[in-house]
Amino acid sequence: MQTRELKIFVCEYGSIEELPEADRQLIYSARDAAQKAYAPYSHFYVGAALLLANGEVICGNNQENAAFPAGLCAERVVLFYAHARYPDVAVKSLAVTAIKNQILTNDPVKPCGSCRQALIESEFRFKQPIRIISDGKERIEVFEGAENLLPYPFKPGLQG
Ligand code: THU
Questions:
Q1: Helix orientation angle between 21-35 and 74-85, rounded to the nearest 10 degrees
Q2: 47-75 per-residue burial string, b: 16 or more CB within 10 A, e: under 16
Q3: Is the CB of residue 14 less than 8 Å from the CB of residue 59?
Q4: Interacting residues of 10 by C-beta distance below 8 A, sequence separation 6+
Q5: Residue 62 Cα to ligand 1 middle (Å)
Q6: Whose CA is closest to 6, among 152, 159, 160?
Q7: Which residue from 42, 46, 99, 134 has its CB within 8 A of the most atoms of ligand 1, so it is best to mutate?
Q8: Ligand 1 within 6 A of CB of 111
Q9: Separation of CA 47 and ligand 1 centre (Å)
Q10: From first to last of its 160 residues, what are the pLDDT tens digits of the chain?
Q11: How far is the CA of 20 from the centre of ligand 1 (A)?
Q12: How far apart are CA 18 and CA 14, in angstroms?
């Protein structure tokens, strides 16, 4: 038996001004998308914006449903739409933000487990990591690749 130690990395920024311009624009797009979320049950309004390798920015938000599992998180809404629209184009980065009681959450909002797995599959498909920008009022966190959020993921095509 041997024990393996894994390292995961996150870059923390104290304010949006510290980030490169492209990331700032993506965060503003995610904040704007959060305002348009359909979240009448949780009142937790999540916005996501992603930058594709072709330079296009695509936005999405959470879509809830009275039959709860039928709804979908902002990250998967935008990721699946991007891949449906541009099936051959990789995702470079994705910003996610959440609004609760009309204000940004203090803590940077991070993709749920299912969204992390969906991001991993996109990375695997296009063989490049996705930069994940997690927005919050107090700080912004940047993860260089979804495996910094989901170590030991299920990897499509590598199992069995
Ligand atoms: N939600 C997202 O859209 N993204 C996340 O990263 C976390 C959760 C949504 C799902 C649901 O509509 C609401 O937030 C409350 O969980």
A1: 110
A2: bbbbbbeeeebbbbbbbbeeeeeebbbbb
A3: no
A4: 141, 142, 143, 148
A5: 6
A6: 152
A7: 46
A8: yes
A9: 9
A10: 999 999 999 999 999 999 999 999 999 999 999 999 999 999 999 999 999 999 999 999 999 999 999 999 999 999 999 999 999 999 999 999 999 999 999 999 999 999 999 999 999 999 999 999 999 999 999 999 999 999 999 987 766 6
A11: 26
A12: 7
Would the CB of 53 count as within 6 Å of ligand 1? no
| The residue type at 84 | A
Residue 51 makes CB contacts below 8 A (sequence gap 6+) with 22, 26, 57, 91, 92, 93, 94
- Please tell me whether residue 146 adopts helix, strand or coil conformation: helix
* From 5, 64, 75, 147, active-site residue: 75
Nearest protein Cα to ligand 1, atom 13: 44
Residue 9 and residue 148 in contact, taking contact as beta carbons nearer than 8 Å: yes
Is residue 11 within 8 Å of residue 20, measured between CB atoms? Answer: no
